[in-house]
Amino acid sequence: MDDLTKIKGVLGCAAYAGNSQVSGTQFGTLGAKTSEIEQFWATAASVVATNMQLGQERELLVRSGSRQVLLLLRSNQNVVCEIDAQSDWKNLAAEIKRRL
């Protein structure tokens, strides 16, 4: 995986396969608990999407007042990116997917 922090607005990124970080895929800064909760993200997104009848979700954004974390769900690995809180997450998601 390329260093996605080269995209303006991406502060940190990493890829996970199963419950483990893929070696050589972490760039920039991510929260200290990122790897501890990764195993639950795909399941949580699936449950929310099913309950709200959204179909199969491939992107999930978690946002607070000061942070945004974008999760791209992929068949072989999940990619998590912390993005600038002021960034347009939809445009960044499209650019990140192009680079993956």
Question: What would your notes on this structure say?
Answer:
- Strands 1, 2, 3, 4, 5 and 6 form a 6-stranded antiparallel sheet that branches.
- The mean pLDDT is 84.
- The protein has helices at residues 34-51, 89-99; strands at residues 10-17, 20-21, 27-28, 59-63, 68-72, 78-83.
- The protein is globular and about 35 Å long.
- The chain has 2 helices and 6 strands; from the N terminus they run E-E-E-H-E-E-E-H.
- With 100 residues, the chain is α+β, with helices and mostly antiparallel strands.
- It has a single domain (4-99), classed as Beta-Lactamase, CATH 3.30.450.
CATH superfamily: Dynein light chain 2a, cytoplasmic
CATH-defined fold name: Beta-Lactamase
| Model regions low in confidence, pLDDT < 50 over at least 5 residues | none
- Sheet bearing the most strands, described? 6 strands, antiparallel
What characteristics describe this protein?
100 residues; alpha+beta; Beta-Lactamase; six-stranded antiparallel beta sheet; 6 strands
In short, what is this structure?
By secondary structure, the protein is an alpha+beta fold. It has helices spanning 34-51, 89-99; strands spanning 10-17, 20-21, 27-28, 59-63, 68-72, 78-83. The termini are close together.
Write the layout of secondary structure elements.
Blueprint: E1 10-17, E2 20-21, E3 27-28, H1 34-51, E4 59-63, E5 68-72, E6 78-83, H2 89-99
